[in-house]
Amino acid sequence: MADSERVARQVGSAIRRVRVQRRQRQYKVAEAAGISRRQLAAYEHGRQQPSVAALAALLRVLGCSAEEFGRHLGPWGCLS
């Protein structure tokens, strides 16, 4: 598995983890972030990596700072 695929999976897992911890429904988060539920599902399953703008919108909707999100990423992700 390429590093980019690992990062996509790690970012997606972190998005899902934050969303679930905050007890938010996938379709509501997607709608508030301006993306489709299908797109959010693709991010959460690591099939696609969100753009910086999409990730920023998701974090805003979830009320999650970049610092907090970084703690969910583990060794393969980096926001700096």
Q: How can the largest sheet be summarized?
A: none
User: Which structural class fits the helix and strand makeup?
Assistant: mainly alpha
Principal-axis shape equals globular
What is the succession of H and E elements? Answer: HHHHH
Question: Approximately what portion of the residues adopt beta-strand conformation?
Answer: under 5%
Distance between the termini: 23 Å
**How many discrete structural domains?**
1
By DSSP, the count of extended strands is 0
Radius of gyration: 11 Å
Kindly state the percentage of residues in helix: 55-70%
CATH architecture: Orthogonal Bundle
Average pLDDT score: 89
Given as residue ranges, the uncertain stretches (5+ residues, pLDDT < 50) are none
CATH-level-4 superfamily name: lambda repressor-like DNA-binding domains
Total of helices: 5
By CATH, the topology is 434 Repressor (Amino-terminal Domain)
Q: What is the CATH first-level class name?
A: Mainly Alpha
Q: Which characteristics define this entry?
A:
68% helix, 0% strand, 80 residues, 434 Repressor (Amino-terminal Domain), mainly alpha, 5 helices
Task: Write a concise synopsis of the structure shown.
By secondary structure, the protein is mainly alpha-helical. The chain has helices at residues 3-21, 26-33, 37-44, 52-62, 66-73.
Give an overview in words.
- This protein is 68% helix and 0% strand.
- It is mainly alpha-helical and 80 residues long.
- It has a single domain (3-73), classed as Orthogonal Bundle (434 Repressor (Amino-terminal Domain)), CATH 1.10.260.
- The model has no long low-confidence stretch (mean pLDDT 89).
